[in-house]
Amino acid sequence: MSKDQKPIANLSRRDFITGLAVSAAAAGAGIAALSPLINAEDVPSIDDFLQQHYQRLTSDEKKAIFSRLEKEISETYGVAATVNDPQPLDGVVYGYALNIGRCIGCRKCVYGCMKENNLSRNPQVQYIRVLKMKKEGQGIDLETSIHDYPQEEAGDPNYYYMPVQCQQCSSPPCVKVCPVKATWQEKDGIVVVDYNWCIGCRYCEAACPYHARRFNFAKPRVSSEELNPDMAYLSNRPRYMGVIEKCTFCLQRTRTGRYPACAEVCPTGARKFGDLNDPESEVRKIIEKERVYILKQDLGTIPKFYYVFAK
């Protein structure tokens, strides 16, 4: 090491990220992909950046990471949080069925999701968009839909309301384009993101045809009073500026036998969730018996999120 080189322990976060960005540019990835991180005040530490890929960590290494995160959360928010790593259940593949005929566009699913998953309040981040579309003939027109309608316009009988979120595709294009493999599909079908491994290039966001991924251009902010302390490493733990996040079917809940928050708060029963491999599950019976469709089926993404028109 020359006298001009800094030991890794003495590098600042910004020095490290800037060096990473320059290396990426030299390798052809482009400095623009990492530029959001260069001036970020809240990004993973150097230890986080140098951490092995999450899938290669041992159980003991994961426990040490969870302990460090819990300490950081306690220091930042003054809240005693628990960070866990619930694993996919053997033989289970999750799916969703949403009845457009019952959805009233109240957006309780949107805010239930925000509360459960510690989504940023300022700037506000939402995983679910509820599209409002005028009823015309036998179909719906996605091209003319809006999602920023006033609350008093919910429940209009002249309109359909269609919530859209991550479709948990069986062939996810977002996973294919990630240059560092920070996002992948687990065996229960849930596509996850490791926020420590993500470099913020946003290729996955561009590749997703459902506008289901969110990039943190600013530091996500959740108050201590609003923070949900029941966390999982690959879902609702606090995120950083400059990284991508997305819906994970509330894996911190669903892998322990509970419903996703959006399904639990729905007042009309429009949302049904369950194991696609279980012939007795409600979601499986809906798919088999009702007229269902998937969004943009011509793209070959094979979503596990199904829409149905039924009373």
Short summary of the structure?
The protein is α+β, with helices and mostly antiparallel strands and 311 residues long. The chain is 27% helix and 15% strand.
Biggest sheet features: 4 strands, mixed
Low-confidence stretches: 1-14
Shape: globular
The Cα radius of gyration reads 21 Å
How much β-strand is present in the residues? 15-25%
Features:
single chain, 311 residues, 4-stranded mixed sheet, 15% strand, globular
Q: What does this 3D model show about the protein?
A:
The protein has 311 residues and is of the alpha+beta class. The protein folds into two domains: 9-39; 45-311, Alpha-Beta Plaits (2-Layer Sandwich), CATH 3.30.70. The protein has helices at residues 13-27, 31-38, 46-50, 59-77, 108-116, 173-177, 203-207, 251-254, 261-265, 282-289, and strands at 82-84, 94-99, 129-134, 159-164, 183-185, 191-193, 213-215, 230-232, 244-246, 271-275, 292-293, 305-308. The chain has a four-stranded mixed β-sheet with strand order 10-2-12-11. Strand 5 and strand 6 (191-193) form a beta hairpin. The longest helix has 19 residues, at 59-77. The protein is globular, with a radius of gyration of 21 Å. The N and C termini lie far apart (71 Å). Mean pLDDT is 87; it is low at 1-14.
